[in-house]
Amino acid sequence: MKLTSRHGLIALGLIAAAALLAGGFAWWKATYERTEEWVDLPRTGEAQRNPLYVLKLALRADGVKAQARPRLQRDRVTLAARDTVLLYNDPRTLTKADTKALLAWVEGGGHLLVRTPPPGPLDVEAPIALLDDMGIAVRNEGPECAGLDVRGEDGHIEFCRGRRFDVGEDAPPTQLRWGDEERGYVFVRLPHGQGAIDVVGDFVFLDNDSLKDGPHIALARQLLAPNYGAGTIHLIYAAQMPSFWMALLLDNWMVWAPLLLALLAWLWRRMQRFGPMLPAAAVERRSLLEHITASGEHVYRYGYAHLLHDAARQAFLARLRRRDPQAAALEGEAQAAMLAERFSLPPSDIRDALATPIARDHTAFRHRVALLMRMRNSL
Hints:
This protein is α/β, with parallel strands linked by helices. Helices cover about 45% and strands about 15% of the residues. It folds into two domains: about 45-235, 3-Layer(aba) Sandwich (Rossmann fold), CATH 3.40.50; about 290-379, no CATH class. The protein is built from 14 helices and eleven strands.
């Protein structure tokens, strides 16, 4: 079989392509090295919604009973005398009933940790029941950091996202405090009955991303010291979950974007095309007023004008009873005299308007009905 020049070109091309692939593979093998790398996957489940998840795991690894839930749930969970409750969320979200129950529980030996309200608009006149009962006054100022030095660790600054506060004269004597009267405090421990209440500027150092630092671990261990290992530590974190629509908008665009494009395409296809203007549809010639006028003319033509006059008189007397009951209660000359004084008309015109006109007296009928309507509209 004789090879043509075309077959020879194809063979040369295949050989060149194979040589390029072989050279590229050899260069890749000599240049690159296979290695292993750890990549942090996005958090899911409780690790995503619970900022105290790492703290819960660390406490359980240390042999301490720890529970985490978004709300206090006093109706479901009973607090023991030596338990610890850490309220991670804003204390202003507590109800009066929860505040009263927590203070009674602390008095029996519990340990409560609470933070000050986070930075932002703060109504200084609005009471914060849990802090006010302990004589704590929150400062309406911007955050101010505090230095934290732990032996063998690098220096840290803490409480940069929280409010400082003052301890009032009516507050119980503090067991521990961090700060001063001039700049305010970032932490105090107040005795309450057999238990204690810790007020802290913020709990950022307890977050999942912050608890890996040695100073934060030491500070957390000191805060939880009073009842550490004696009871259960309840971590109340108040999960801030995004709304369904926000999650759909941000995380699931690959679903709604094609559906939106399909909807827009369908609407464009079904959209009305604007062409030349069509003439307006014919409307009914007669209106309601025309029907009423025709009915009145028909009744008058057949000699029932007294019925039309009586309807006009009854309409006038009905409004007169609502607007001037005294004049409506009179009869005869007394009524005519009072109405004449009211409308500034001669009494004779009033008497004629209220009396039934003579049949076929067109002028008297028009005059009396017109006068009744004018007096009715004047009431």
